Recover the amino acids of this structure.
């Protein structure tokens, strides 16, 4: 087992709404990211993927609040630190985040180089502007972006180029962990491929040590991630390697997600896509038992009343279902 | 199979040029096409290949610079607003972004009510109209009782897109043009939306035109695939033929750009 750069134990965070209701969007999540590995997080909209990403940075601002659990980044516990301290010592330099709408993250009234100056000066106010330019130019060259981008305004760049610029800016301080939240969902397939190639190159070129990749596109996740974590309603429902998660999913929800994969390969037209009926539960009042019970094909009477823990299936694999591995596999193969 | 069916919409040398002089851009460059009744057609290309411009021409939102469009064998005539409205009874669209497809000031009832009025149901009793709206909502697995008196922003993206399909169910057009209908919603709702579109096609026998950059989606849904590059159709034919045995380098590149699960995804080609 490699060295863990990010370790999260039992993290719980909540949103407090205008009406003082608590919504536990990340519910007792534990994870471990090792050096040189990419962790993928899958799940449908509203299952807590993006909230988890925000929570992992340890920097909370209303309506998101920290409840319990710990985050250990590079051997240093960052939960319990003052927000200002985290912002100064961890954000950008140890953990960086590419938001979902990264295309809008650039300042439209600033040239890219001025934006980069702002980013670096925020962490090191004494840095010389010439050095910053050299650093930016060198990073852009390694990442395959033309240096001319530095002197352009964001409106002059195409969508794919903007996205790649944002990625380059976010890793300019060489963070240990990069969290990429749907970095390619607004792009067409060709630009998506360029973005993914660049992200994979970051680790090879020593810009980052580990990556957390969040998306709902499973074929993409399969190609990028080493391990996949499936989330549902704020909880982890399955942990497995990428291969296991796609070809041998255990939890009925993961199985449902895998049923909606569309790839241009010859077998596709003969398979009927399976959609999961219904919608995720309202987290204001989460169900007492299994949160997926309402939509599950294999639901048992006790599913709805008893809390289901995450069962360890060995070899780093875990799933949250009361049925045994054997029963589930048989059900998927021969029907229920 | 396609040969026996009647041609529903066809075009000869359709061209659209934006700007002139130095800024002259040929967005759609002399394309010919024949869409048959009940056929599912996909137009695939990357950003900037002219897919959406062609869609707008088909919908009659912009006029082509050159070329003719024939609707059910007749030359399309949309010179007056009245004729345009008549034409839009036959062709309808679902757009990429469900959040901007609705008028935010109007309630959901009025969206569906307009559709009934457009099909000449203005003088029906109110109870009958409610029943029609409820039926349309049931078709896409929404509950009308929960939607009535709500504004569009109270729905999720998937629900909005499903409501768009409910609209189409009420309008029963001859042609439905879907411009990237699933690119803004997650993979799980995507399967649901595609299922409803296919059910709808079977229920009212319309022609479905998909405009997409996702060649996997095109392969899954369509009978015929047109590949568009820089305003031209570079390759077309049945889905199996185009996707499994592509002839053009451009088609091969589009296919190689999509992440796959059974084959190795080659990242070195960009």
């Amino acid at each position: 087992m490699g060295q863990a750069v990010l370790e999260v134990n039992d993290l719980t965070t909540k949103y407090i709404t205008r009406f003082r209701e608590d919504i536990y969007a990340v519910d007792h999540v534990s994870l471990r990211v090792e050096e040189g590995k990419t962790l993928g997080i899958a799940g449908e909209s509203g299952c807590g993927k993006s909230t988890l990403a925000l929570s992992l940075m340890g920097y909370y601002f209303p309506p998101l609040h920290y409840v319990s659990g710990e985050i250990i980044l590079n051997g240093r516990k960052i939960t319990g630190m003052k927000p200002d301290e985290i912002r100064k010592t961890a954000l950008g330099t140890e953990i960086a985040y590419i938001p979902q709408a990264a295309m809008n993250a650039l300042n439209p009234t600033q040239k890219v180089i001025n934006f980069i100056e702002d980013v670096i000066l925020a962490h090191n106010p004494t840095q010389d502007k010439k050095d910053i330019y050299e650093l930016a130019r060198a990073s852009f060259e390694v990442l395959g972006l033309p240096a001319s981008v530095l002197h352009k305004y964001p409106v002059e760049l195409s969508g794919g180029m903007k996205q790649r610029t944002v990625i380059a800016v976010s890793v300019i301080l060489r963070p240990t962990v990069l969290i990429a939240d749907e970095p390619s969902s607004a792009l067409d397939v060709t630009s998506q491929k360029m973005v993914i190639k660049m992200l994979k190159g970051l680790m090879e070129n020593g810009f980052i040590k580990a990556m957390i990749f969040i998306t709902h596109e499973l074929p993409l996740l399969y190609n990028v991630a080493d391990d996949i974590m499936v989330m549902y309603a704020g909880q982890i429902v399955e942990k497995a390697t990428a291969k296991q998660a796609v070809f041998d999913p255990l939890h009925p929800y993961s199985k449902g997600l895998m049923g909606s994969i569309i790839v241009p390969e010859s077998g596709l037209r003969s398979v009927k896509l399976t959609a999961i009926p219904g919608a995720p539960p309202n987290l204001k009042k989460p169900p007492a038992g299994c949160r997926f019970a309402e939509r599950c094909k294999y639901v048992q009477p006790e599913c709805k009343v008893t809390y289901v823990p995450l069962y360890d299936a060995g070899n780093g694999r875990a799933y949250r279902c009361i049925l045994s591995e054997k029963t589930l596999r048989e059900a998927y193969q021969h029907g229920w | 199979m396609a040969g026996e069916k009647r041609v529903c919409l066809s075009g000869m040398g359709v061209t659209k040029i934006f700007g002139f002089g130095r800024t002259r851009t040929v967005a759609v460059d002399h394309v010919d096409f024949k869409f048959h009744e009940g056929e599912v057609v996909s137009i695939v290309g990357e950003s900037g290949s002219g897919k959406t411009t062609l869609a707008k021409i088909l919908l009659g939102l912009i006029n082509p610079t050159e070329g003719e469009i024939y609707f059910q064998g007749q030359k399309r005539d949309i010179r007056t607003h009245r004729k345009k409205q008549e034409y839009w009874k036959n062709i309808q669209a679902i757009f990429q972004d469900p959040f901007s497809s609705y008028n935010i000031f109007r309630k959901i009832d009025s969206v569906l009510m307009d559709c009934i009025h457009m099909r000449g149901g203005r003088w029906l009793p109110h109870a009958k109209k409610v029943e029609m709206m409820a039926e349309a909502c049931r078709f896409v697995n929404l509950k009308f009782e929960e939607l009535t008196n709500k504004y569009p922003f109270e729905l999720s993206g998937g629900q909005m897109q499903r409501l768009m399909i409910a609209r189409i169910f009420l309008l029963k057009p001859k042609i439905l043009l879907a411009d990237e209908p699933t690119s803004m919603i997650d993979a799980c709702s995507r399967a649901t939306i595609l299922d409803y579109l296919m059910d709808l096609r079977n229920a009212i026998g319309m022609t479905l035109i998909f405009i997409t950059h996702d060649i996997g989606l095109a392969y899954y849904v369509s009978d015929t695939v047109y590949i568009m590059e820089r305003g031209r159709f570079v390759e077309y034919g049945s889905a199996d033929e185009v996707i499994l045995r592509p002839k053009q380098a451009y088609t091969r590149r589009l296919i190689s750009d999509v992440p796959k699960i059974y084959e190795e995804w080659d990242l070195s080609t960009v």
